[in-house]
């Protein structure tokens, strides 16, 4: 019984001929290959949050008037401000909110606005939530928006 099973092991002969460092070497290579991309990615750019001044004052002004004309006949600004809002988006990339409104709103004409207008509305909503303005506008670029998070709200 025992013998048969050992004979049946695939590669049991071949393994004996491999140098002793073969398996550890292979594992090390695999580990390096697995970790290196994550390491390089982490080096790229530090993540930012909505607290880092990611939109400009002028942009929020523009967003405010776009909100009034394109969203205001169904929504009030207060729906998107305050603790309930910050809890809803807690820890999310701001990109998800941008994508949500871009694909779903205005509900009677989803995606009808230029991409930059959605970014402007997002800037306005950041201002409503008292996130500070900075010197640069928030661009309508997925790669940038993916790098910015809403801060986590303590759930207590
Ligand atoms: C014609 C009416 C209408 C207009 C205009 C409209 N919305 Fe909406 N919106 C709705 C309705 C109804 C819902 C809830 C149902 C749903 O999720 O589809 C909603 C949901 C939302 C939500 C999700 C809220 C939540 O608590 O989950 C967001 C965010 C939002 N709208 C943003 C906007 C923005 C920004 C605009 C302007 C670009 C806009 N909406 C224009 C009707 C509208």
Spell out the key features of this protein.
single chain; 156 residues; mainly alpha; 2 domains; 2 strands; 54% helix; 3% strand; binds heme C
- Indicate the radius of gyration in whole angstroms: 26 Å
Instruction: Encode the helix/strand succession as letters.
Output: HHHEHHHHHE
Determine the strand fraction and express it as a percent band: under 5%
Q: Any idea how many domains?
A: 2
Query: Which ions and ligands are bound to the chains?
Result: heme C
- Span between N and C termini? 62 Å
| Helix-strand makeup class | mainly alpha
Q: What is the 3D shape? A: elongated
Average pLDDT across residues? Answer: 89
User: In DSSP terms, counting alpha (H) and pi (I) runs of 4 or more, how many helices?
Assistant: 8
Please report the total strand number as a whole number: 2
**Biggest sheet record:** 2 strands, parallel
Give the low-pLDDT segments.
none
Order of the strands making up the biggest sheet: 1-2
Question: Roughly what percent helix?
Answer: 40-55%
Tell me the quaternary state. single chain
Structure summary:
This protein is mainly alpha-helical and 156 residues long. The chain is 54% helix and 3% strand. It has 2 domains: 2-44, no CATH class; 49-149, no CATH class.
Explain this structure:
This protein is mainly α and 156 residues long. It has two domains: 43 residues, no CATH class; 101 residues, no CATH class. 54% of the residues lie in helices and 3% in strands. The chain has eight helices and two strands; from the N terminus they run αααβαααααβ. The chain has a two-stranded parallel ribbon with strand order 1-2. The chain starts with a helix and ends in a 7-residue tail after the last strand. The relative contact order is 0.18. Bound molecules: heme C.
């Amino acid at each position: 019984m025992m013998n048969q099973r050992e004979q049946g092991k695939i590669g049991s002969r071949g393994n004996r001929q491999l140098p002793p460092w073969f398996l550890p070497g292979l594992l090390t290579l695999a580990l390096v290959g697995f970790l290196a991309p994550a390491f390089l990615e982490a080096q790229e750019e530090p993540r930012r949050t909505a607290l880092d001044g990611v939109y400009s004052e002028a942009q929020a002004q523009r967003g405010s008037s776009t909100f009034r004309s394109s969203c205001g006949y169904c929504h009030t600004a207060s729906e998107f401000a305050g603790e309930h809002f910050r809890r809803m988006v807690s820890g999310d990339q701001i990109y998800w909110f941008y994508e949500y409104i871009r694909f779903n709103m205005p509900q009677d004409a989803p995606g009808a606005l230029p991409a930059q207008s959605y970014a402007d509305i997002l800037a306005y909503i950041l201002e409503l939530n008292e996130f500070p303005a900075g010197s640069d506008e928030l661009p309508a670029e997925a790669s940038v928006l993916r790098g910015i998070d809403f801060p986590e709200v303590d759930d207590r």
